[in-house]
């Protein structure tokens, strides 16, 4: 199966995955721009997504990273993928109306993709980098999964 | 300020932080057992916390890691901390009724703590490791934050 | 092929791999104690393995982590493995006569092992934790590697 | 103290640090091109820097990452820094005559810089990405270090 990798068709496909993921839906994540090797994910920063100082919760940004990195892996490896691991660095507190994750493929072989994303907080139209992540997506081993 | 580090008082303190974090509340996280250097966080695996295959969403486990690792850092550094970064490995799909994160302090100096957690899925009373995380918690630089 | 996983036979096997790795030999690394799921790697802290403050170089500790984590992966997955990635935290400066890495398997499935190690500096018989690492080892895809 | 951040002066400064680090000298690392926010580190791939399949040792690439990431942190935070942690992903085996690490600053606050690098193997004039790393550099707490 080949995934659409660019344009409205790719965005619609990606958001159908979001719709099928109850947790991604719970946080209000939507893909909004996809080109080959790049994807943008947007999450409006609702009050129930924050921590006790009123900033975006680290878990929220981690969830955005997980969604973005996995999707970028699927864009080059196909839909049958697993997220092996990722690392996230928090650069500064996330404040504003919206968080945006911009993901890309760093490098890929036949069975594995290394992907990264930068997460920005948007406040009054201005973007500030708040986090960055780097992860590994692998092709799911169907025979093993069935074992 | 010194945090209670053991017993019901520590659990109550930790859960007041959870109560103040809307996103932690949204996912239903609760601390339930805290001893010096160790803490257990529990999240019932509701349907709205899953991904499209019905497993626990990677972002959910990442959020549990973020909460657990940060709390362990605060237990040795005091409440005024920031999570610098963490890394999470997904070992196997998370299925069952409950996820449990068991966190501990690996090492700490005056300004920084390295903490880890193992996350288990509980199904029919049996625990399986589903993820593990390692992170860095730092004392917040108040003067810088105010600058 | 099954690897010996415990005792002098396992240590001898592991050190033959070290002998075949010129860079591991260059830093003077030796395995010295291996039991199922655990392995100890020792590096005498020579002057030419340090940074400009006289501490163990971060690259040295990273190399020990790479060797330790990969070996632990091979102990459960077999010898045909690749190190996908790892993360290392530096807890405090490494001073003393020797560095020791104690590695273990956190969790493994058929194609992937998550392994960790703690690195200690030994000075006057006393051990201090100086670094900790967490990584992912995968079975090499022979068909892909040959393609 | 302000570090030179561009041109031959910056390269000379960076290589004096290399000269003072016996382990960096042992592996033959040299900075060769530095502009504000970017630095290139080169290591000729000698036979004694390899693993048992003849590829660049993972520890070598990790050491290049450690040197590159730390230098980029110092370029924005000043020379008094510590490397808190980093993560490295291995994309494909490293073969060729030379390894090159290209590092940059992802984001920085007053006390902390997040830096990344991509490591390439050069063979016959062609570059291939072999690894990528992401790390955290912090200002050393002098008072704590003296305690």
UniProtKB/TrEMBL annotation, chains A, B, C, D:
Q: Is Protein transport among the key words of this record?
A: no
Matching entries from InterPro entries are given as: HotDog_dom_sf, PAAI_dom, Thioestr_dom
Top-level taxon: Bacteria
Q: What is its EC number?
A: 3.1.2.20
Gene Ontology molecular function: any one: hydrolase activity
**Which organism is this protein's natural source?**
Deinococcus antarcticus
Protein name stated in the entry: Medium/long-chain acyl-CoA thioesterase YigI
Q: Record's Pfam families? A: 4HBT
Q: Which PANTHER family match?
A: 1,4-DIHYDROXY-2-NAPHTHOYL-COA THIOESTERASE 1 (PTHR43240), MEDIUM_LONG-CHAIN ACYL-COA THIOESTERASE YIGI (PTHR43240:SF20)
Q: Which UniProt keywords apply?
A: Hydrolase
Thioesterase domain boundaries: 53-126
Give the catalysed reaction(s), semicolon-separated. a medium-chain fatty acyl-CoA + H2O = a medium-chain fatty acid + CoA + H(+); a long-chain fatty acyl-CoA + H2O = a long-chain fatty acid + CoA + H(+); a fatty acyl-CoA + H2O = a fatty acid + CoA + H(+)
Q: What does the similarity note say?
A: Belongs to the YigI thioesterase family.
